Amino acid sequence: MGAASNPALLEVADLAKHFAIRNVWKRRVGWLRALDGVSFSVRRGEILGVVGESGCGKSTLGKTLMGIHRPSAGSIVFEGNEIANISPYESRSLRRHLQYTYQDPGASLDPRWKIGRSLHEPLVIHTDLDHAARDARVRQILHAVGLPESHLDLYPHEVSGGQQRRVGLARILTLQPSLVVLDEPTSGLDVSVQATILNLFLELQKQFDLTYLFISHDLSVVRMICHRVAVMYLGRIVEMGDTETVFARPAHPYTRSLLAAIPDIGGKRITDDFWLEGEPPNPGNLPSGCRFRTRCPIADAGCAGQEPTLQATDPTRSVACWKAEATS
Amino acid sequence: MTTEHGPSVTTTTTPRRGTRALLEVRDLEVSFATDGGVARVLDRVDLRIGEGEIVGLVGESGCGKTTLARAILGVLPTNSARVGGGSIHFQGESLLDKEPDTLAREVRGREITFVPQDPFGSFNPVFTVGAQIRDLMRWKSPALRGDRPPMGRRERQRADHARVVELLRTVQIPQPEQALAKYPHELSGGQRQRIMIAMALLPEPKLIIADEPTTALDVTIQAQILKLLRRLAEDHGVAVLFTTHDLGTAYEICDRVTVMYAGQEMESATSEAFFNHPAHPYTRKLLDSLPSRDRGLRGIPGEIPALVKPPPGCRFHPRCDRATERCARERPSTETLGHAHGVRCFHPTRPGAS
Q1: Chain A within 8 Å of B272 (Cβ-Cβ)?
Q2: What is the pTM of this model?
Q3: Would an 8 Å CB–CB cutoff place A199 in contact with chain B?
Q4: CA distance B61 to A80
Q5: Predicted ipTM > 0.90
Q6: Which of residues 145-204 of B touch A (CB under 8 A)?
Q7: Is B41 domain-assigned?
Q8: Residues B236, B257: contact at Cβ < 8 Å?
Q9: CATH number for the domain including B295?
Q10: Domain boundary at B160, B177, B202, which?
Q11: Which of A53, A190, A224 sits opposite B219 (nearest CB)?
Q12: B184: domain range?
């Protein structure tokens, strides 16, 4: 993969986001550690998948990178600049090339604005371009996402849901971002449409030289399009590495259970042999040591002591598990 | 109502080995009045569920699977929906001919129960889970059918409580006594769904209709719930109609699968035949559009039609590469390809041709 030699576009170190848990009298009774020491880097031109179940902190991660949440600790270096914990005003110009899409980017269009106006707006806010220059760029991008120019004069309700999604994507691309955080971009899509949208992501990535942080709970999609993948559990990355390595030889017991839970048509039925028991513990009250140990089939007394950190098992993958060596 | 009944709407019933029909839907037509006109949401749909069988009803959004489930339960919205024709027979009796009161008292919640997609919306937030299950027992428990010896109030309460705890154990709720004292919001989504399944089993029904029961859950919890549902259905000998948009979950749990597209059922087969030898072009394309390393990413060109003005004939024909002029004129009748394998297509892939 050509991305391997590229420099890091985004460097995240020990990022944490803790939310206060308050009782009815607004008194703080504990901390919910939604992100608890997350470190990774994204190279230019790469697609990094972030997977995990609900409550694992993957969306908090995306939102903290975007400055929607203020990080509790840690650093975020984007294009060589530190963007964690600086004021929104200062970070505005630094974050211009960092964009975020919600689950349905079409839903963030103003229903009372024509599509053309929605596409001009980010350029008006962030650039000094005159109307003609803005118009040229808007038309170019509209073409890239596969929409006719006549759509500029339509309202969002006049186009189909799939086209709204494309307009939402076009809106993000007008600012020529280098990194796009895609937060669950395929959830709620029918499979017959999903492939088309994923192909569009890949085409746009090539055409605009984009880097994606692809947040998803759908492992089969992540496997298809991501170069590397980070698996999160309760606010921490438990395993990270090349997609092929992680999917072919998962080292962390949690990754193994996630992979085992994906329905595999033609394969063994999970209703016959799925083994993971229980549900994730309350994130406000985590177990000591490894946070997966309460559900882990291979945990022993040693796992309750210290929390494992990410250790490289091979050149392309690292895992946070005390027993990784013994099992991989 | 103007319908384009072709010359060949006669349907051949698929013969089944050993199992008697529990539910038989024939030529069911349901339309909804909308602002844009009359939407024909179900167009002459057939469905058959044998006793104790887990049948998957698969399709993309807007294909009519939820409408079909609601029609069977008799809970279509009365102001906008209209049943235009066809029949629903449950244990030999016509459900469409029953009085709504009789249906509510004797069938729904008794013989046929329901597991929703979002269990939170089906609980009352201001009562504990235990209170709601006991309430259900008062009204729908099989014990009320007269096979319980007379007992005092306290005695009965204790017996009810013991039965509820037992039930929660069968759906693998840890610490059932504590769970009963909790309010719905204090339980996780997976636990709420387990309790919903317990409540659906409580009246000892013949058929459970589960409408996308695992869609809102994480994959590991989904796997647990699917496993549980399958085991309970087998232990209790209850049939399940399992609607889902996810072919993967259908593969995991179903004995037989029926696939729908834009209000028409397209193909119905045993899981084995459905996933190994799909015959309908839509089924084949749908299976091909699942992400896979070998195939790459393949969608189906085009969009799902609006049901207010659906394409005539086979509703899939505008997106189908095998479509001929005949497909746009008339809707194919069911052709039986193999054992219990019915397909509604003029140009199916026949076994051996692949």
Answers
A1: no
A2: 0.84
A3: yes
A4: 44
A5: no
A6: 174, 188, 190-191
A7: yes
A8: no
A9: 3.40.50.300
A10: B202
A11: A53
A12: 115-202
